[in-house]
C-alpha cells in the first residue's frame, strides 16, 4: 500500500467547511493509502504549531521513507511549506479553495503565488478557483478540479418538530404560520446578508421571516477595531476571516422586521433549522479579492430537503446547479430575487417537488466518497508522473555523463 502525508491547519474540533473537507478527505484516503497526518487540532498556540511545522514534517519523512506524496490542504499551507520544493524528493499536491488564490495583497500575488505554481499538483474545489489558478500561471496539465462533497447521511436524520419550541423559548421567535428563509455563515461582506436584509426582505411581506446562523459579535473586538483602522486593514480582515459585515447586519437587525440572527447553533439544531426552512439562500455579492470558493452549506441544505436560491457567481456555481438542486440568480439583482422567492413560496407543491429533486441530485453527485475517489485517482497520477519524470532525468544523466543507461 502506498503512503501519503497530509498536512493541514484546518481540522476538527474546529468547525467550518474547510475543516470538514479536510477531515473527510484524510479519513477517506485511509482506504487507499497508509496515511500520515500533521494537523493543527486546536491544541496549543497555532503560531507555535506553524513554527514547528517544518521540523515535524522532516521527522515524519525520515521515519517513513515509503511516503510517496505530500498533500497540503490549502494555499496557506503551500506558502508555509515552500521549502519542500527544494528539499523533498517526492511530489507535493496542494488543494486551493478560492481566497488562498485570489487574496488581494500585492506581495502575495506577485511573490508567493508564482512560487505556488511550482508544486507538482494543484487541486481546486471549483471551476472558478481552477480558472483563477490558470490566470496566475499554474500548469494546465497539473491543475485539476475536484468538487467538495457533503455527508449524504444527514439527509436521513428525521425532522424533529421540537425545533419550533426551541425557537420560541430560546430565541423568542414564533415561526407558526410563517414562511422561513435561512442563511448560514459568518457575516462577511461577500455573503450578502446585509444586502438581502436591506434590499429584498422588506419587499417579501410580513409572513416571511429571515433567520441567520453563524458566529457573530454585536460589537467588534479591540483587535478588529485596530485592524480596521490600519492601512490595508481590509486585506488583513480577509486574511484573518474577520466578520466585516457584522456592523451592518447588527444595525439592520434593529430596524428590519422579521429578521433574526441566532448566533452559532449546535449542529443538531442546524440540521433541524435547515429542514424547517422553506428556502435556503446564498445572496452573495461581488467583493473583489474575497470570492466564494465553493458553497458547502448549500449542499447541506439540499440534503435536508430545502431548496436553494443562490447568486450565480464564483465557486457557488459548482455547488448549486441551476434547475437541479437550486436556482442561480444574478448577484445584486433585487427584482430577480424578489420575483423568484415570490414564485417559490407561492406554490407549495412545486417547491416540495423541487426540494425532493434537489435532495436526490445532491445525493447522487456530491458524496464525500466521490470526492475521495477523485483525489485517489489524482494522487496516483501525480505519483506516477513524478516518478516517471525522475527516472527519465536519471537516465538522461547517465547517458550525458558517459555511463551506460540500463
Task: Tell me the layout of helices and strands.
Blueprint (H helix, E strand, L loop, with lengths): L2 E6 L8 H13 L4 E6 L6 H18 L3 E6 L2 H6 L3 H4 L4 E5 L2 H4 L3 H11 L4 E4 L2 H9 L7 E3 L16 H10 L7 E6 L8 H7 L8 E6 L8 H8 L3 H8 L5 H8 L5 E3 L5 H10 L2 E4 L13 H8 L3 E5 L4 H4 L6 E4 L4 H12 L2 H18 L2 H33 L6
Parallel strand pairs: 1-2, 1-3, 3-4, 4-5, 5-6, 7-8, 7-10, 8-9, 10-11, 11-12
Helix pairs in contact: 1-18, 9-12, 10-11
Question: Explain this structure to me?
Answer:
The chain is α/β, with parallel strands linked by helices and 406 residues long. β10, α14 and β11 form a beta-alpha-beta unit. It has helices spanning 17-29, 46-63, 75-80, 84-87, 99-102, 106-116, 127-135, 162-171, 193-199, 222-229, 233-240, 246-253, 267-276, 296-303, 316-319, 334-345, 348-365, 368-400, and strands spanning 3-8, 34-39, 67-72, 92-96, 121-124, 143-145, 179-184, 208-213, 259-261, 279-282, 307-311, 326-329. The chain has 18 helices and 12 strands. The longest helix is centred in the C-terminal third of the chain and has 33 residues, at 368-400. α10 crosses α11 (233-240). The radius of gyration is 23 Å and the shape is elongated. The protein has 2 domains: 3-149 and 368-400, Rossmann fold; 152-365, Glycogen Phosphorylase B (Rossmann fold, 3-Layer(aba) Sandwich).
Amino acid at each position: 500500500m502506498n503512503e501519503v502525508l497530509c498536512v493541514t491547519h484546518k481540522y476538527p474540533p474546529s468547525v467550518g467547511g474547510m475543516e470538514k473537507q479536510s477531515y473527510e478527505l484524510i479519513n477517506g484516503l485511509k482506504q487507499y493509502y497508509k496515511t500520515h497526518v500533521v494537523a493543527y487540532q486546536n491544541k496549543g498556540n497555532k503560531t507555535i504549531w506553524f513554527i514547528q511545522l517544518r521540523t515535524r514534517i522532516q521527522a515524519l519523512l525520515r521515519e517513513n521513507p515509503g511516503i510517496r506524496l505530500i498533500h497540503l490542504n490549502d494555499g496557506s499551507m503551500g506558502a508555509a511549506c515552500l521549502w519542500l520544493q527544494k528539499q523533498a524528493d517526492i511530489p507535493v499536491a496542494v488543494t486551493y479553495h478560492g481566497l488562498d488564490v485570489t487574496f488581494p495583497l500585492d506581495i502575495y500575488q506577485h511573490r508567493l503565488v508564482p512560487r505556488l505554481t511550482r508544486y507538482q499538483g494543484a487541486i481546486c474545489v471549483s471551476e472558478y478557483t481552477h480558472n483563477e489558478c490558470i490566470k496566475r500561471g499554474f500548469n494546465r496539465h497539473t491543475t485539476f478540479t475536484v468538487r467538495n462533497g457533503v455527508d449524504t447521511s444527514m439527509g436521513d436524520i428525521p425532522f424533529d418538530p421540537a425545533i419550533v419550541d426551541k425557537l420560541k423559548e430560546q430565541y423568542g421567535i414564533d415561526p407558526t404560520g410563517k414562511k422561513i428563509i435561512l442563511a448560514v455563515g459568518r457575516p462577511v461582506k461577500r455573503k450578502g446578508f446585509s444586502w438581502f436584509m436591506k434590499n429584498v426582505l422588506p419587499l417579501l411581506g410580513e409572513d416571511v421571516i429571515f433567520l441567520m446562523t453563524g458566529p457573530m459579535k454585536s460589537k467588534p473586538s479591540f483587535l478588529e477595531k485596530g485592524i480596521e483602522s490600519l492601512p490595508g486593514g481590509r486585506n488583513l480582515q480577509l486574511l484573518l476571516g474577520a466578520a466585516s459585515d457584522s456592523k451592518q447586519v447588527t444595525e439592520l437587525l434593529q430596524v428590519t422586521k422579521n429578521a433574526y440572527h441566532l448566533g452559532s447553533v449546535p449542529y443538531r439544531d442546524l440540521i433541524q433549522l435547515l429542514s424547517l426552512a422553506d428556502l435556503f439562500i446564498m445572496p452573495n455579492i461581488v467583493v473583489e479579492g474575497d470570492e466564494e470558493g465553493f458553497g458547502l452549506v448549500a449542499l447541506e441544505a439540499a440534503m435536508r430537503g430545502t431548496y436553494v436560491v443562490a447568486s450565480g457567481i464564483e465557486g457557488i456555481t459548482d455547488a448549486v446547479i441551476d434547475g437541479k438542486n437550486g436556482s442561480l440568480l444574478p448577484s445584486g439583482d433585487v427584482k430577480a430575487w424578489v420575483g423568484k422567492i415570490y414564485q417559490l413560496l407561492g406554490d407549495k407543491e412545486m417547491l416540495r417537488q423541487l426540494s425532493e429533486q434537489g435532495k436526490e441530485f445532491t445525493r447522487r453527485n456530491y458524496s464525500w466518497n466521490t470526492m475521495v475517489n477523485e483525489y485517489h485517482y489524482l494522487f496516483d497520477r501525480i505519483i506516477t508522473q513524478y516518478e516517471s519524470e525522475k527516472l527519465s532525468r536519471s537516465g538522461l544523466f547517465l547517458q550525458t555523463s558517459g555511463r551506460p543507461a540500463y
